Amino acid sequence: MKKNISKKVQSIQPSGIRAFFDLVLGMKDVISLGVGEPDFVTPWVVREAGIFSLEQGFTSYTSNKGLYKLRLGLHRYLKSRYGLDYSPDDEILITVGVSEGLDLVLRTLINPGDKIIIPQPSYVSYGPVTELAGGLPIYVDTTRDGFKLTPEKLEKAIDKKTKGIILNYPVNPTGESYRRKELEELKRIILRHNLICISDEVYGDLTYDFEHTPFPGLPGAKKNTVYLNGFSKSFAMTGWRVGFACGPQEIIAGMTKIHQYTIMCVPITSQMAAAEALVSGKRSTEEMKREYCRRREFVTEELNRMGLCCSKPQGAFYAFPSIKKSGLSSLEFSQKLLKEEKVAVVPGTAFGACGEGFIRISYASSMESLKEALLRIRKFLGDR
Hints:
This protein is α/β, with parallel strands linked by helices. The protein has 13 helices and 12 strands.
């Protein structure tokens, strides 16, 4: 039967995150610091809106583009929050999470052999989805640059086949982000080469130390940018699966064409809840952000105390400490830590080869769990 499977699909490795966490299933007393999911439940006012929509009988399809009420809400939210002005009629598409939005934009843009630049360490799906769309991922190692793409490395990675770049910030898995000046420097190169910037900013509202700057908000950048975002992280709505893409009319139309044949529309219940989140969810987002910030301080301080060098994340809810002092590879460290101390983390290599020597820790867990997990990690290191 294997011969019947597409060679392209066969060549792609399973997600490094999911493959590792198959080991966790069935184990007792494991503290998981691996899954990138808020430990908060969706705010009640948002859940209630979803429940009420069902009680009212909203169980039909919506427009392929998404519920107009939600698109209009996003238009207003983005304009008031960031000064971004996207038409709800033809510049916004509601997707099944940011993941579908990424898949749609890559399939819309890529011709066979087109190159997409991906700074690494990077979220696990960027490369495989680029390949599935017929493109060639060009990875740029950022480990020696504070986990940020530099203008020099971006310029060097570009050639005649380069179609675009996937820019994610705050970054999963490192938590690093970009200030406006840094983004301006990248923008100049992107515009000079007429590249498309696919800007994944799903963690934008969880930026701690400075104001998040959306890439399309930079002067002149909007026409060359597809802005991806969603409700999973900032509103604790992972299971609702609601994302959105904003961009030039022609690109959104192409994405909608694929979307209407493969998905049709995001479930209406989820869209009704998301529309309420835009109106009533800001307070809950700020409360979650404050708690993540408190955990960030604790986790990074403890990691550095035990000799696992870790910079302070500027956003999201991940720490990416170096485990080189242990003498173990990232995979060995993660496997042994799980087996010996029952703490689950993600090997840095799940996010690209340059992630060797690091692990990803999610602090989207309670302080009690984090304290116990870090005690176990300290014991693990002491036993080496």
